[in-house]
Amino acid sequence: MPLPPASGTGKYYALAAKSIRLIRQGCTNRPFFHISVTQRKRLNSQPVIEQLGSYDPMPNINNEKLVALNLERLKFWLGQGAHVTTPVAELLGLTGFFPIHPKSYMTAWRNRQAEQDRLTSEKEAAKSTA
Question: Greater confidence, 68 or 46?
Fold first, then answer.
């Protein structure tokens, strides 16, 4: 299966009439997303074409964020030329369906840097009090 275009713009994006995107559901403080195929210029009142999966961003008791995908239908819509939005591309990269998105690498790098900074500041604070 060929890889999707890297930039998400250009001739592939211009020709894509349909997009695979996250549709937000749920309450104010409890988001839940459906991964759906929609028309690219869809109004919120219009129905989606097909639901391909779901994503629960709130960690459960095992600290897991749950994703459910119908990969066969996803392959079908990608073969039809549907455009994948960046958040969905990140999820598909983490599941192993796409290559890992560069934004995921940058988020992990920033988290590691913040953790290292926090540890060094704690060591310095411990040295100054001792």
Answer: 68
Q: What is the pLDDT of residues 52-94, one digit of tens each?
A: 999 999 999 999 999 999 999 999 999 988 999 999 999 999 9
Helices then strands, counting H and E runs in the chain, come out as 4, 5
Give how far Cα 23 sits from Cα of 7, 20, 61, 83, Å. Answer: 22, 10, 24, 15
Q: Is the pTM of this model over 0.70?
A: yes
Q: Which residues of 97-115 are buried (b: 16+ CB within 10 A; e: fewer)?
A: ebeebeeeeeeeeeeeeee
- Note the helical H segments in the chain: 11-15, 71-79, 86-95, 102-129
